[in-house]
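Go through this pair.

…
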Amino acid sequence: MANSDDEQFKNYLKSFRPVTPQSLQAKRHLAKPRRLFAVAVGVAASLAATVIVVLLLSHSREHTLSTGKRSVTEQTTMLQTSRPIASATQSKISTPVLTKLALEDPEAFNTLMTERLQTQFPAMKGEQSALRVLAKE
């Protein structure tokens, strides 16, 4: 029986005839338009970044020229007094001004930071306050 099955299978396989395959249609490549779009986006982003940097530098230069050669403490007090009293506790001083203040006058910097700490952070008076629990860790 095994031989007859093998013979039938061989005959079945012999009945197949090779057929020539059809030619494949070439796909249109979208790589060029995508590449051009990517380059255009890159150039536009570079130009936008350049414009932003130039504007920021010119603004900081104008600010430096308008403030003149004042000391850091004068700049700090000027920044604090130039804002309304309601927002005086939440006024922000730029990092370069704080850095200059810390380097030139550490005592004034410590005083300023202590004042900010007392006015801007909640008190840790409660025994189970979140800040007190975190401070213990």
Observations:
- Confidence is low (pLDDT under 50) at residues 81-89.
- The chain has six helices and no strands.
